[in-house]
Amino acid sequence: MIVDALTPRDLPRCAELEAELFAGDSPWPLSGFVNELAAAHNHYFALRQHEGGPVLGYAGLAVLGSPGGYECEVHTIAVDPEYRGQGSGRALLDALLRVADAVAAPVFLEVRTDNAVAVSLYERSGFAVAGVRRNYYQPSGADAFTMVRPAAAEVNQS
């Protein structure tokens, strides 16, 4: 498996996966992916079996703020169910965290409270629950944990 840059030609596959994986919670349409990829402050990655291969997973991160005060926000991480449990989510998360670490930024995300696999992955990567957002996911009404990982410089100092 490799992780590389998500490209415009990958976006229809992302929208297909999104519709499959998040059917009950307002999946992003193709236009949403187009807008996200076009935003200069966003960094999106694709998981593939080989260079140039089809997208098996994707992840995106926004870098917000200015030098010395950056914050990052994970927008999405998704993996085709056939490729889960093989380190795919970890590989995508690691790509996002490298971007955040390069600008010494803390990272925030939301994750369904009932997604124990994802919560565990985030905790193993240094994230901690900072709060709960009730009815965050719509239309299902599922709650989300807000999780935060301190900037890498802060982690290394403690």
TrEMBL record:
Primary enzyme class: transferase
SUPFAM superfamilies attached to this UniProt entry: Acyl-CoA N-acyltransferases (Nat)
Record has Transferase as a keyword: yes
Gene3D superfamilies assigned to the protein according to its UniProt record, in alphabetical order: 3.40.630.30
Residue ranges occupied by any N-acetyltransferase domain in the UniProt entry: 1-152
InterPro entries: AcTrfase_RimI/Ard1, Acyl_CoA_acyltransferase, GNAT_dom, YpeA/RimI_acetyltransf
Keywords (A to Z) from UniProt: Acyltransferase, Cytoplasm, Ribonucleoprotein, Ribosomal protein, Transferase
Enzyme Commission number(s) of this protein: 2.3.1.266
Molecular function GO terms recorded: protein-N-terminal-alanine acetyltransferase activity
Pfam families with a match to the protein in the record: Acetyltransf_1
Sequence similarity: Belongs to the acetyltransferase family. RimI subfamily.
Protein's recorded name: Ribosomal protein S18-alanine N-acetyltransferase
Protein species of origin: Gordonia phosphorivorans
Gene coding for it: rimI
